[in-house]
Design goal:
This protein is an alpha/beta fold. It has 2 domains: 138 residues, 3-Layer(aba) Sandwich (Rossmann fold); 281 residues, Dihydrodipicolinate Reductase, domain 2. Helices cover 35% and strands 21% of the residues. The strands form 3 sheets. The protein has a 9-stranded mixed β-sheet with strand order 16-15-14-13-7-12-11-8-17, sandwiched between helices. Strands 3-2-1-4-5-6 form a 6-stranded parallel β-sheet. Strands 9-10 form a two-stranded antiparallel sheet. α9 crosses α14. It is globular and about 85 Å long. It binds NADPH dihydro-nicotinamide-adenine-dinucleotide phosphate and ligand LXAUTJHC.
Length: 488
């Protein structure tokens, strides 16, 4: 750890919740294991229950054993990690309780970094509580989990509540996709390789596809998910963030505001979708029962906790137009859904065909070159190019072939860190470039709200698709209308 980095007190609000147990505590353990925690940093778990320090530490140990599946807990690492763990009992809605934190945290010694792994409805009380405990002044930081609101209005409210006590430079809004190794690699691919940098616009690219498909359904989160739907849960944040990284102009520097300024310009350039074009540009689906990975699964309306008249979407496909010079006439097709045939997130860049085909005798129509960026699983980068098949003869025989770089093989000695490891580390180091700025969140909501309103005013239910399929048939038509098809 660099000697310039300062020690932190990571205040983990909601330490007994699902996110903290499954993701945050294991990520912190991995940072400890990698030697990336500052020697003097501490992790202060906060929840409502009365718990002895010992009991909290045992709880954390149990979580690590449950959620770190690939390896046994390393006893030496655990002993070091254990020394950092503290527990504070606090009711987040009780203003007076926050004074307990002033007694534990000394801002002179460590920067307070407060992670809100709680429902967003509590963010305002936590911010006020931190302020009253003297833990809000710069360089204190707050890390906010999604969802930042349900629409533009509610996201503004949350952002205003936070801004009452924290300046924007203190606020770290999580989109865990920005912490993924392969999403970060988009910056390297685009801006460290002249071959792509000079072929990254409407002159060279025909269209872009972004797919984020999951095998899982709602996984017992029906009450949250049914309010949100796939548009709010995945498109407003993860897909739009990936899109901005693909579409943005080169930032002047690799710093937070240079990158976020460019991402914001893309969000501002998204062509609005409203009632006039919502049928042409979007598809909404909801899964019915079917088979995923060989097993029978229930439909959305038969999931545990469901209301059987819900018209929430579990699948979205959108044709996105970006109204700027670079992307004029280049559609970005987004597709995301639950209960798809496989878990697969990828970006496919389809290049324009050759203007003239000199191989027409053997290959009537040369297929387009494609750059496929596999975000997860099987992380890697693939380029589809034409090659001559070796052999003698009068005419050249060609075949489409792959230049395939698998992260696993190429960087076999490197472990791919979970997104939360990187994000927690960057928050503790005070680097905001992988966190979403307020104006980005709000512009994303403005665009998404337009589509949600248009869907509402059509009054149409989502189209049904069988679990284990790639969504409603109309998702295929969305591209077929443009004489294109989804990359399978
Ligand atoms: N789970 C996940 O994978 C993801 C979650 N998120 C977001 O992260 C946030 C947390 O999610 P998740 O962990 O799933 O939610 P949980 O409901 O599992 O956990 C929320 C935590 O907040 C605590 N809490 C609630 N009210 C109070 C209170 N008055 N005082 C003290 N503590 C309180 C709960 O404490 P208690 O145990 O006492 O009830 C609980 O530990 C949500 O905003 C969610 O949308 C985002 C991405 C993924
Ligand atoms: O934020 C969310 O993301 C997950 C998918 O994340 P991934 O890292 O597994 O791709 C999604 O299942 C969940 O519904 C959503 O809230």
């Amino acid at each position: 750890m660099s000697s310039a980095a300062k020690a932190c007190d990571l205040l983990l609000f909601g330490t007994k919740g699902d996110l903290a147990r499954r993701k945050l505590l294991p990520a912190l353990y991995q940072l400890e294991k990698a030697g990336l925690m500052h020697d003097d940093s501490r992790v202060i778990g906060i929840a409502r229950d009365e718990l002895e320090q010992n009991a909290y530490q045992q709880l954390v140990r149990k979580n690590l054993e449950t959620f770190i599946k690939k390896e046994p807990i390393d006893e030496a690492v655990w002993q070091r990690f254990l020394q950092r763990l503290l527990y504070v009992q606090l009711d987040l809605t009780a203003a007076a309780d926050y004074q307990k934190l002033s007694a534990v945290v000394d801002c002179e010694k460590r920067i307070p970094v407060s992670y809100f792994a709680t429902p967003p409805a509590l963010f305002a009380s936590i911010c006020a509580g931190l302020h009253s405990a003297g833990l809000a002044a710069d360089p204190a930081r707050v890390v906010l989990e999604k969802p930042i609101g349900h629409d533009l209005e509610s996201s503004r409210l949350i952002n205003e509540q936070v801004a009452q006590y924290f300046q924007e430079c203190q606020v770290y809004r999580i989109d865990h996709y920005l912490g993924k190794e392969t999403v970060l690699n988009l910056l390297a691919l685009r801006f460290a390789n002249a071959i792509f940098a000079s072929n990254w616009d409407h002159n060279a690219i025909d269209h872009v596809q972004i797919t984020v498909a999951e095998e899982v359904g709602v996984e017992g989160r029906w009450s949250y998910y049914d309010d949100a739907g796939q548009m709010r849960d995945m498109v407003q944040n993860h897909l739009l963030q990936v899109l901005t990284l693909i579409a943005m102009e080169p930032p002047a520097r690799l710093d937070a505001d240079s990158i976020r300024d460019e991402k914001l310009k893309v969000l501002k350039a998204l062509r609005p979708i409203d009632i006039s074009n919502v049928h042409e540009k979007t598809v909404r689906g909801q899964y019915a029962g079917g088979y995923v990975a060989g097993g029978a699964v229930p439909g959305y309306l038969d999931e545990e906790g469901s209301r059987n008249n819900s018209s929430t979407e579990t699948f979205v496909a959108i044709k996105v137009d970006i109204d700027n010079w670079r992307w004029a006439g280049v559609p970005f097709y987004l597709r995301t859904g639950k209960r798809m045939p496989e878990k697969r997130s990828e970006v496919v860049i389809s290049f324009k065909p050759q203007p003239h085909n000199i191989f027409h005798e053997t290959y009537k129509q040369l297929p387009a070159n494609k750059l496929i960026i596999r975000l997860q699983p099987d992380e890697g980068v693939e380029v589809q190019v034409m090659n001559k098949i070796p052999g003698l003869g009068e005419t050249m025989q060609l075949r489409q072939t792959k230049l395939d770089l698998s992260f696993d093989e190429t960087f076999s000695s490197k472990r791919i860190a979970d997104a939360y490891e990187r994000l927690l580390l960057e928050a503790m180091l005070g680097n905001q470039y992988l966190f979403v700025r307020r104006d980005e969140v709000e512009h994303a909501w403005r665009w998404v709200d337009g589509i949600l309103e248009a869907w509402k005013s059509t009054g149409e239910p989502p189209k049904s698709y069988q679990a284990g399929s790639w969504g409603p048939v109309s998702a295929i038509s969305l591209l077929a209308r443009d004489d294109r098809n989804w990359d399978e």
